[in-house]
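re: ur question from earlier - yeah i can do the single chain one, its not a big deal. heres the input i used so u can compare w yours
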Amino acid sequence: MSKEAKARIKINKLLEEAGWRFFDNKDGQANIILENNAKLTQTQLDEQGDDFEKTTNGFIDYLLLDNKGFPFIVLEAKKEEINPLAAKEQARKYAQSQNCRFIILSNGNLHYFWDLQRGNPNIISKFPLPEAVEGYTNFKPNSNTLTNETVNADYIVKTQKPDYEKDPRYIDETHRHTFIEENKLRFLRKYQVRAIERIQEEVKEGKDRFLFEMATGTGKTLTAAAVIKLFLADRKCKTGFVFG
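and the output i got, formated as tokens:
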């Protein structure tokens, strides 16, 4: 089997696993079409699976539709041996022509999700669900919720063990260290708290893009967890993306 066919078959499976549909079924109407094509037939899909570069329309990319049937995401597919990022500009032009904000770049093994309004492509471990992207599109953080959230050293700990302060072993300073270690409680350092506060200050100024630059060993993962909790304070934050 050609490498092109292998990539196409993998991408087809990833789309179906994420809830995208090639054909109308009990879950809804088809929401995958091909560039310059209408809804697929089984014959067309089988043809692409065998060797999609020799189909009637040549090398074809996917166009994913929203729940109203409008172009939503361009999925640019490449051979397995080609880095999907090589198709960035090609995909951008096509997405703009279709009035699509989102792009997925994939060679079947490596995948990127790209929001044209939010910077560069990000690696994803699997394709996003249709409702996840729609939720992401409609998500607008409540600035008051974000800026009024109190962030202290025990911000993460209160999620791990909300009643930790009432535990006798924590109250007893001679047992406190052991209690913290046994429960793997993660307290924020002062500079980590300050990093979260800086986000809140920037949100108050109307900013919505942030970059942390932290040295190895300074706790980027814990800081990221605090950022996630901060945004989850706004209950409308339900994107459902998996990055990694």
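Confidence is low (pLDDT under 50) at residues 50-59, 236-244. not sure if urs matches, ping me
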